[in-house]
Amino acid sequence: MINFDEMYNLCRQYSSLNVEDIDYLVGFAHMLENTNDDDDIDIFIDIYNEITRQAVVIYHRPPRRNNSLYEERIVGKEARIENEPGALRTLATGLPSHDILALTQEDKIIKQTIFPIIKDMRNIAVLIFERSAEIPLDEPPDRSGNPALLNDGEFLVKGFQNRFVNQLHEAILVFGDDGNLQLANSEAVSLYHKIGYRDSIVGMTYDNLSLDRSTFRSLWQQLTRKEEAEYIKVETHYFYFWFSIKKVYLKEESKLLLLIQDITDIKKKEEEINLKTSVIQEIHHRVKNNLQSVVSLLRIQARRTDNDSARKALEESVGRIMAIAGTHELLSKQISDEVSLNEVINHIVGNFRKIYSINRIQIETYVDENIYLNSDQMVSIAIICNELIQNVFEHAYDEHENGKIMIKGFYDEQEYILVSVEDNGKGYNSKNVRKNSLGKTLVESYVKEKLNGKLIIQSNNKGTKTSFYFNK
Asked: Which of 64, 128, 157, 334 has the smallest number of CB atoms closer than 10 Å to its CB?
């Protein structure tokens, strides 16, 4: 008898199936209860357990004419991929699996035939028919190579020898035009063993071995229309495995060749990198937001102070922090840790356009768009350029005097990166600049200590050019 509440609870606990899906499965179970078909076998409905990425039993109809294969109650128990590969394969691909060896939760060897339960073009569960495999438990399934691996010491593809083929890290399977597996190397045997297949794969049909929803008939029709040199390549996600599969039609032999590579470790590393990248981007985003909060506090403090020197110091600090925040903002929007020099310079110029009324002072930038630097270098450059531009606005021109600033960034002949800020102002004598000037100290220390670079200042009554160069 069906326990409807239990079916609902199991589906809600382990899956994201909606109410209509669960009602459909309950109706399917009700239909099985009221039919006399397959009275002599155990019948199950399993769903995908989204928590453990295995399967879980939600319905069991024991045999009516024979004893069940199970002594204990099985509903609610897990079906694992290493024990029931056919059930998990059908859940993953939506393809039926016929007469696949499996191991029950009570360690009995059985054979399963599995069909997908489809609703609204989605595979929501599987229907499993089980019978005894009549194989004693002390007789292990074939896990080694198979004598049918090779034909008279030669692999079917010309030039491939036994020893060579079995040393390859790719699984190689050859199917005849009837869709049955004729040849397989040791890597193929190991791969299918890894995903739970317990019996010999040689002799199985393609449709029982397909890992990517394709059927032999559709694939054969596709490939036989292509030239021999052409192939189909797919990547498929099979539960917690990833496989890269090449499918080739061997015209002379009328065979289908599959090359399967387990790329699970590669995909896991890619996922780890993507996760770390997302975390780093989020950190840059939060740093930028926190710096903007600091900027807001400094601006409030600057408006409230009556001391002109203090107000000026606070406003200069705002500019420096905004330069740093701009770099973190750019880093939060990209995957790489490298930032475009051109984008950072333009961001700094944009800040000055917001802060100052610069109708009388033009700013032009000539920056190589191909220069990308890591975040540490770029933060240093942002602070340096911010100081240099700030200095031009404050000291290079008399009040109401027109002026022009040119900012350049490029590779020089020795492949050093050279950045310069040049104005046509009144110039100054660098020897007369106060030694304790914060701006000058920042520029010198960042060029020397952070960039391991060289600072050059040229100034006369026609203007000032401050350059620094460093090695990437």
From this structure: 64
Same-domain status, 212 and 301:
no
CATH number for the domain spanning 341: value is 3.30.565.10
Cβ within 8 Å of residue 460, ≥6 positions away:
427
Residues 6+ apart with CB under 8 A from 356: 393
If residue 255 lies in a helix (H) or strand (E), which one and from where to where? strand 255-262
Domain boundary among 245, 262, 279: 262
Domain end call among 83, 102, 132: 132
Are 367 and 454 in the same domain?
yes
Mean of the pLDDT values across residues 133-137? 56
pLDDT at 159 over 90: no
Report DSSP state, residue 226.
S
Instruction: Dump pLDDT digits (tens) for 65-89.
Output: 889 999 999 999 999 999 999 999 9
Same domain? 343 vs 419: yes
Is the C-alpha dihedral spanning 405, 411, 413, 415 positive or negative?
positive
Confirm whether 141 is domain-assigned: no
253 and 355 in a common domain: no
| Co-location of 124 and 15 in the same domain | yes
Rg (CA), the chain: 35
The pLDDT tens digits for 10-59 are 999 999 999 999 999 999 999 988 887 777 899 999 999 999 989 999 99
C-alpha 187/C-alpha 173 separation (Å) is 10
- Residue 137 within a domain: no
Pick from 92, 262, 95, 267: which is nearest to 193 by CA?
262
When divided into structural domains, the chain yields a total of: 4
**Cα gap 372→82, rounded to integer Å:** 48
Crossing angle of helices 375-391 and 341-355, rounded to 10°: 40
Exposed / middle / buried, residue 338 (Cβ in 10 Å: 0-12, 13-18, 19+): middle
* Residues 207 and 215: beta-carbon distance below 8 Å: yes
Residue in 350, 342, 413 with CA at minimum distance from that of residue 373: 342
Same domain? 340 vs 328: no
pTM of this prediction exceeds 0.85:
no
